[in-house]
Protein: Protein kinase domain-containing protein
Organism: Pseudictyota dubia
Amino acid sequence: NMDKLRIATQVSIGVADMHNVDKEGVPSIAHTDITPGQFILIDGIYKLNDFNRCRFLRWNSEEDQACRFHVGSNPGKNRSPEEYAYEDETEKVDIYSMGNLFYMLLTELWPFEELKDKKAQKKIMAGERPPMESNISDSEDPAVKAILKAIEMCWRQEVEERATAREVNTFLKAEQQKLDPSWLE
């Protein structure tokens, strides 16, 4: 499970660095397609890749926040509630999808794998999350517990309550450091 925590930490680094590429705390890119296939393993490190759906974010200086955006087509079962509702979007769509990726790491299943896309999308918009087997959700393994907490940070229904990529990354790095002090070497 330490390997899964390492992968989750690397994923969170990639998303956090992308969001903050221009200035820390000022999101400038939303990937909008965070799935396992968007990461490439290079020299033992998972790196974010495939930016064909990304949105470069403009800054609203009057509201002191990134401008919201729309993506015209949001298929599948791996996206955020606001994407399926075709509401205004922020970089936080990536956070929700990152939670799905962490779910896949733990369960080895796609979210709502057994459901048709439309049915899964309705559940996601209604605030439901894919099932988690009790051997995972009740695990005492500290690496699993850390990933479960990260999923909780990512899967908030309300965009404003969802963690930033850097918050998830900071949490996972701290948990990894506790369990494996040599991991940064």
Summary: The mean pLDDT is 95. Residues 2-179 form a domain with the Transferase(Phosphotransferase); domain 1 fold (CATH 1.10.510.10). The chain has one domain: 2-179.
